[in-house]
Amino acid sequence: MQFLLRKATLEDSQFLIETRNHPENVRLSASRRIITHDEHEDWLHRILKDNKCLPIIIVKKSTGKRCGYARIDQNGSTGSITVVLINEIQGQGWGPVIIRDVARMGTETLEGLKEIKAVIRAGNKRSVRAFRKAGFISCHEYKELEDGEVELVWRSRLS
């Protein structure tokens, strides 16, 4: 694999907020708004202490450069996944590989995690394709938000 997955630390704070607040990422986010520095710092300190949350930094092995982040939030045997890649590696076919490895890391790290759900804006076709290629399957599609969303699920082979 060309990428290393590691747990996020406080030293990743600036990278995380800059990546999260990139205009394209804001557009595709759940809140669709820029996060303030104070909001980000409070959030980061909270999730780093939470044993039901796995914040991950994605690093390109050849350069050591951070190229994305992911997070799995666990609620019982189910988790929700977020994956954000920087623009330079998008569209090169790495998304499904990274998503699959993040999901596996989640089931290996978060005790009792058997299923991971991804909720993706319906207009984000690239992400829907990447998650499907990574082994996520459609649960249902629904239109609660203006743009609608697609919910995909991944089940651990261990369950």
Rg for CA atoms: 15 Å
Helix/strand order, N-terminal first: EHHHEEEHEHEE
The description of the largest β-sheet is: 7 strands, mixed
Task: Count all strands and give the number.
Answer: 7
Strand content: 25-35%
| CATH architectural group | 3-Layer(aba) Sandwich
Query: How would you classify the helix and strand content by structural class?
Result: alpha+beta
Strand order in the sheet with the most strands: 1-2-3-4-5-7-6
Helix content: 25-40%
The CATH class assignment is: Alpha Beta
- Give the tally of structural domains: 1
- The CATH homologous superfamily corresponds to Gcn5-related N-acetyltransferase (GNAT)
Determine the CATH topology. Aminopeptidase
What overall form do the CA principal axes indicate?
globular
Q: Estimate the mean pLDDT confidence.
A: 87
**Segments where pLDDT lies below 50 for 5+ residues?**
142-146
Distance between the termini: 25 Å
